[in-house]
Amino acid sequence: MNLSVRLGRLTLQNPVVLTSGTCGYGKEMRPYLDLDSLGAITVKGLSLFPWEGNPPPRIWETWAGLLNSIGLENKGLERFLEEDLPFLENLATCVFVNIWGKTVGEYVTIARELDKVKRIDALELNLSCPNVERGGATFVSDFKVLERLVGEVRQATGKFLIAKLGPQVRDWEATVTILEREGAEALSVTNSFPALAVDVERMSFVFALKTAGLSGPAIKPLALKMVYDLVGMTDLPIIGMGGITTAEDALEFLLVGAKAIGVGTANLVNPSSAMRILEGIKQYLLRKDITDIGEVIGKVR
Amino acid sequence: MNLSVRLGRLTLQNPVVLTSGTCGYGKEMRPYLDLDSLGAITVKGLSLFPWEGNPPPRIWETWAGLLNSIGLENKGLERFLEEDLPFLENLATCVFVNIWGKTVGEYVTIARELDKVKRIDALELNLSCPNVERGGATFVSDFKVLERLVGEVRQATGKFLIAKLGPQVRDWEATVTILEREGAEALSVTNSFPALAVDVERMSFVFALKTAGLSGPAIKPLALKMVYDLVGMTDLPIIGMGGITTAEDALEFLLVGAKAIGVGTANLVNPSSAMRILEGIKQYLLRKDITDIGEVIGKVR
Amino acid sequence: MKLARVRKKERIGERFVLLELEERSIATQAQPGQFVMVRPMGEVYDPLLPRPFAVLRTEGERFTLLFEVTGRGTLLLSRLEPGDTLQVLGPLGRGFSLKVSSGVLIAGGRGVVPLVFLALEFTKRRIPFSFFVGVREKKELALLRVLDDIGEVFWSCEERVSGGFCGTVLGLFERCLDTVLKGDVKIYACGPEGMLRGLAKMLAGKEEIVEVSLETRMGCGFGVCLGCAIPKRSGGYWHVCSDGPVFKLSEVVL
Amino acid sequence: MKLARVRKKERIGERFVLLELEERSIATQAQPGQFVMVRPMGEVYDPLLPRPFAVLRTEGERFTLLFEVTGRGTLLLSRLEPGDTLQVLGPLGRGFSLKVSSGVLIAGGRGVVPLVFLALEFTKRRIPFSFFVGVREKKELALLRVLDDIGEVFWSCEERVSGGFCGTVLGLFERCLDTVLKGDVKIYACGPEGMLRGLAKMLAGKEEIVEVSLETRMGCGFGVCLGCAIPKRSGGYWHVCSDGPVFKLSEVVL
Ligand SMILES: Cc1cc2nc3c(=O)[nH]c(=O)nc-3n(C[C@H](O)[C@H](O)[C@H](O)COP(=O)(O)OP(=O)(O)OC[C@H]3O[C@@H](n4cnc5c(N)ncnc54)[C@H](O)[C@@H]3O)c2cc1C
Ligand SMILES: Cc1cc2nc3c(=O)[nH]c(=O)nc-3n(C[C@H](O)[C@H](O)[C@H](O)COP(=O)(O)OP(=O)(O)OC[C@H]3O[C@@H](n4cnc5c(N)ncnc54)[C@H](O)[C@@H]3O)c2cc1C
Ligand SMILES: Cc1cc2nc3c(=O)[nH]c(=O)nc-3n(C[C@H](O)[C@H](O)[C@H](O)COP(=O)(O)O)c2cc1C
Ligand SMILES: Cc1cc2nc3c(=O)[nH]c(=O)nc-3n(C[C@H](O)[C@H](O)[C@H](O)COP(=O)(O)O)c2cc1C
Ligand code: FES
Ligand code: FES
What we know:
Number of helices of chain C: 6
Number of strands of chain C: 16
Bound molecules: flavin-adenine dinucleotide, flavin mononucleotide, FE2/S2 (inorganic) cluster
Distance between the termini of chain C: 32 Å
Strand order of the largest sheet of chain C: 4-3-7-1-2-6-5
Largest interface: A-B, 40 and 40 residues
Strand content of chain A: 15-25%
Structural class of chain C: alpha/beta
Strand content of chain C: 25-35%
Oligomer: heterotetramer
Helix content of chain A: 25-40%
Largest sheet of chain C: 7 strands, antiparallel
């Protein structure tokens, strides 16, 4: 049975990817699943300098969903290279590094630095974070900025380049055109959905920043539609994600045309979810007597 | 304890409203709850002529959510007046009629006809349905059409006029400005979210029309944010809805500024949900020692 | 919804579970062919919707369900034990017509459930009937147990077994067609779509005297969501929960 | 996650439930102050996240949890019966330091759980300790039952009752301060925020010898989501699940 999938010039041994922010730097998952059995792991969003993130509370449970306001906390490039790269060096699976910055310049610099690290297979640009030079609007919300950001990052690195998008995108057609032109090689869709929660007993917002990102099973039917629509707009390979919790969820994304699928919140619900999902996909192919996962991808359009 | 809320010139005895399409024409709910104890009931979307709706399957369950592709099936104005109005005549609560049309003309005509029916307290315009004169784009997606639609309906009826919006709205500020100017008196937010489901075993889309509307607990944090944002944009009273399943859910919407709340999918989960929610709101006010629900509305901003 | 308490639980074969529930109003009002909507847990919203199940029989303040574990909802229900409570709504829908002088009952798999209730009612009313039941696999034969207190039953199995007819229930029924279809008789059927379609072909022209109990995905179960549509012969749609689940063959398109 | 089977269930007072679970690796590895993440049902995704609970004690292949029913997750857990299985992850986090010549344990309400485990360990190691427990209401006194196999315990209740000190556990502890705070002693505390803040005031200057076990909302429980942040004294955040749940008072801002 062939499970490998091709994302442009990058090949994954199977389509199951751990999404950024839900699998730490890899190490933490080791006791619960065999990372080498997966298609790829995406490490927590990394920035040039260490970042504290948001004050607590940072998470809140909703109906079959999770609201998070982590605020991109991370240890910064230097400590990552020192403390976490060694573990990743010894992995036999693909390593994606999700990066972000407060300015275009920060994206470019960290991309240039990571370009030097042989072990890293791809850089994933988190385009859903606030641009301080533009009063905190996300980088996708301004085409000029987006163009510059992706274009300059493309100049800064030869790594496989993934653009990660979310519901903040207003005009998908236009956004995708820019990303294609500026050299993005794949799209990760979707990031969490801006949402809100009120603590009724305390009569206040749950989160200091009021809104937070909704993820988990609740958003799956919305994420699936985003991916389906996007597959119709571009030839760029898409890593479909958003609420994937079971093998059936994953197969829905593959069937509408995603080349790979991301497992996020499900890692928190059960750290071995990704392996169970991969197992379930294999079972399905056997049951359906399909020998190549490629026959599933895009079968339902 | 005062539970009554004022939506402009219309007063509800309490903020709990049954939303369109989830409580039939009222009759069907009678065995399970006391309609007269609620703030208002909104009957199933009504059109000038009978409408068959979509082929089965029409519903599909997702994680804490419901996908529906009913396709606005309804018996049409004539049979409504004949078969269902009599029952509604005898209710002691407010009666909202949700209306839709395939063209602006159909909206206007049914509005004019219903204007003659004394018992009806308000008309709710479903603006999320396809405009056949515009190749099926929803009426909210074209400002010119929206303007004409609301303006002409306003001319056709003196009834309290509610505009019902959904995620199809692209520019909320602009949309609200038009609705205010053309004479809408309240907003119902939100209709269900366009979403997708694939039947993995059958390797096909679940629904004949592919996409369907997502409702139920899953969407609550998204709907709550929509309502919160909207309250900041307009003085029009807002009927907040989307996933409200418990009294706590309802209170979240009231706290961010909704003047009333709609109970939809929860009616299918348990037909007495609305009464349990109303009961829970009373309990909360007692516990918090609040004598007027007005003190809760908009307290968290 | 009302709270019902599980009084008895029985596993029938590998895939079926029988639950005897205590809830007075349903037990005393349910008619053969009617169904109930069931939710395993109050405060949990995944699974979200209640699930529809036909009533197998009633006795005093109790009624019995028999279901096949086919997904998450039935899996959760199968975990309930005597003493547990669940939420129920009903009795719902339009049942079988009881005004006949004799009946023929044809069931496929779990379709046996509403027909057992009908057979018991016929027995009470001294209405003669013959009962045909078919299952696919040997292991489903466990279902026959719920037919114990019903006189004679003709059964078939698509796998070879001793004692019964080897083939589909329609194959079995066809052999007896002429002997059973006499006088003022009605035919009552419930089972997989394929079986019902086959029956319709076999009984072309007799659609008026055939009643079928149908399954569709349901939202509410009591007529508000319009989610349970099936095509009418005359165009437009029926709503299985309120117009059915029992229909004359002449009314529907299978 | 691993499957654990419920072996014993006990209701303690009105609001608490004790579950003895069988799962070898946790039972044999858990240290006092460590916790586990628990999900009641595999296939159901509402409630979604596992819930964190401290370990009360271990014995052979079994470990025990004691929890307060405060919401939907604990409500579902409270419905489990012997024989049922649930999903568990652990042991997790950094427990109490055991290198001391004597200890003072101070618990408020359910905060007693990790300290019971610590007391049992101290007893094993022949480390002398004194144990102070406080509850708000009479009915919570039922909790004292889990302290039966722990030598002497000083307890307080904010409602008037006979036998114990009437007031907060801090009030009780204050009276014994000088007698217990001698030599190489460590103070271990777990309880409501208010109590821990009060303790911090009372022991200002002694932060180095005080260890507190903290609660925060958790996502994963094993360090990947960064959802369990609490402020560091030195700026930035700790992550309760991986840096804690036990911290030196000198490390945290309460
Ligand atoms: C009127 C009526 C009477 C029924 N009587 C019985 C009975 O006596 N015994 C029995 O075993 N089954 C009966 N069924 C079928 C039963 O309702 C489904 O098998 C059950 O809902 C499956 O739920 P699930 O969560 O296990 O499966 P899932 O596939 O997880 O359910 C997902 C969704 O699909 C719906 N669904 C799935 N299959 C069906 C189906 N065949 N019919 C209707 N809805 C479905 C569920 O209600 C749920 O909304 C009846 C159905 C109807 C409409
Ligand atoms: C390290 C640790 C050890 C704990 N040990 C115990 C124990 O031994 N006994 C006990 O009774 N309780 C203990 N708790 C608290 C327990 O985890 C919560 O009471 C429980 O999660 C509430 O879940 P719920 O679904 O019933 O409540 P809900 O309010 O419905 O839970 C909703 C969400 O909030 C989270 N949550 C709510 N309250 C808390 C809280 N106080 N701490 C952490 N998360 C919370 C839940 O995990 C869930 O994600 C511990 C918490 C932590 C962090
Ligand atoms: C706790 C948490 C932290 C996350 N951190 C990041 C991040 O640092 N960068 C990023 O691009 N996405 C981040 N995400 C988004 C996820 O990678 C994923 O895109 C999103 O949650 C939708 O998938 P899911 O529903 O399977 O979780 C985070 C999500 C969660 C729940
Ligand atoms: C089965 C079903 C039918 C609906 N029909 C209509 C309708 O006819 N007109 C309308 O404006 N909204 C309709 N809605 C949308 C609901 O009124 C409500 O706005 C939406 O479902 C969100 O609320 P909820 O999550 O509480 O259901 C329907 C929803 C469902 C689930
Ligand atoms: S199931 Fe809702 S109308 Fe039939
Ligand atoms: S709970 Fe996820 S990092 Fe601590």
